[in-house]
Amino acid sequence: MNAKEKISSSTFAAQYPELGTGPVGxxxxxxxxxxxxxxxxxxxxxxxxxxRVEQAPKSGDFFQxxxxxxxxxxxxxxxxxxxxxxxxxVCQHRGNHVELRQSGHCVGFTCxxxxxxxxxxxxxxGVPDASGxxxxxxxxxxxxxxxxxxxxxxxxxxxxxxxxQTLEEAMGEQGRDLVGYPFDSGTAVFEYEGTIxxxxxxxxxxxxxTYHVPVLHRHSVKDTLAGPDNxxxxxxxxxxxxxxxxxxxxxxxxxxxxPVQGLAWQNAPGPAVTSGVVDAAVKLPKGLNETRAKHWSxxxxxxxxxxxxxxxxxxxxxxxxxxxxxNKVVWQMRGFLRPATNAAQRFGQENSMVELRDAVLxxxxxxxxxxxxxxxxxxxxxIYHDHEIALRHQYHVVKQWVEGFEKNQKKKGKGxx
Amino acid sequence: MPKSVRGTAPLLPKGFKTLEPxxxxxxxxxxxxxxxxxxxxxxxxxxxxYDAMLxxxxxxxxxxxxxxxxxxxxxxxRLLKLLLSLAEMGPAVEWYGTGEYPDGFDARRFKLIExxxxxxxxxxxx
Lengths: 417, 126
Ligand code: FES
Ligand SMILES: [Fe+2]
Hints:
The structure holds two protein chains of two kinds. Chain A is of the alpha+beta class. Chain A has eleven helices and 19 strands. In chain A, helix 6 packs antiparallel against helix 11. Chain B is mostly helical. Helix content of chain B is 48%, strand content 4%. In chain B, helix 2 crosses helix 4 and helix 3 packs across helix 4. Chain B is globular and about 45 Å long. The interface between A and B is large, with 50 and 51 residues. Fe (ii) ion binds at residues 206, 212, 216-217, 363 of chain A.
């Protein structure tokens, strides 16, 4: 296969004409009022990933997940009936946290303020000196529950008490196309977190275009994700599926690894995402390297609104964005590597982790600089390359989602009057 | 930190004596400590460590490939930790030629909130 032909045969703009080709406004990246609208329309009513089922495998197991955007945390617990449930970590007496540990095993939760106790199913079971209260109805004072559902072992919550879509509907075609990937084999886990002074969508954008790879990442992954056959690191493919999108990233098969990197690739439990090596034992689901390109390294799959999976055949990692303001985001990157089958493979795991971190560090100054330029009105429009189509798509999806929600609310308001 | 005392247990497994001088500085508690070491060590010192380690790394990796995490003795664990420091210093030399990031986003602004243990059994692949 001729890589050049394959890559430049058609434009994405022609495949997705509804997205247009003109400049795109920066308002959604820097307007504090729009940010508030996003919280109401998006973050308070879409499914958000909070962990994996392996974090609470047995009844009595629980874990907490902080939601930086809202300041509080949720508890995910598996009760005797084996069901997973999610609760706000908020005591119904006066609002203290009922659990302080990040994870563990217990028979229930005891609030460390006045000692109210709750079962793993959230029911209020004990109130010290209960006779001193007035008309206390324990059956109405369980922990407040959130909608919870699971996709491929990933646990999602929704703050909307009656979500407009089921998780399955929300994951849609892109979710279905990834079913069967061995997500549960990534049991060697690490996680980085950082607070970056940029809009949450900019941080997503930075993982969704490879136009910057040969330039910004010239010291690191330039020669693995671009090469003589593809000097600008053009995408193999970009597929838009509803509010979601997947980019298939090219890999330079002729790349010779650096000495330590090469040893790390040889001594790793699975191929590194940038190695261009595909583990033939892994059956790729339909939606991973969907064109079945030979020069493939990894897919960047964005699930609206704030969750990205970067997948190769031998490892994957996720990015999640938790906005704090129009121009501030908490970013979390969680790596899922296969377990080491011998002690030498711990070396490969460490190098994979370090290279990922270093590559993302290279992205962050650009994000803070463009945010300042947007905040100061020094740039008011973005000019997008065809291979920056994912950015254009995100802009449209977010705008449509916010405006659609607000229209609906108005209609509902009128109906009620 | 372990002391090299003649007549007591060796610092490193047999065959890796030339790496013993590196143990005091480069056997570090965990991934966080290794990044901190990278950020606070002059490039020439990182380079010297890299060169010394690279020479022996293939042999050390073959040695550890015969062994399991969680079952290493102290000398073997030190050898592994030297290699893990090499994994951290690798990009410093191979990508940047220095411990620093060229367009310097402060690496300390990324917190490693969960790390893989250096030497604990990881369980079989399901
Ligand atoms: S706030 Fe929890 S027992 Fe009072
Ligand atoms: Fe990047």
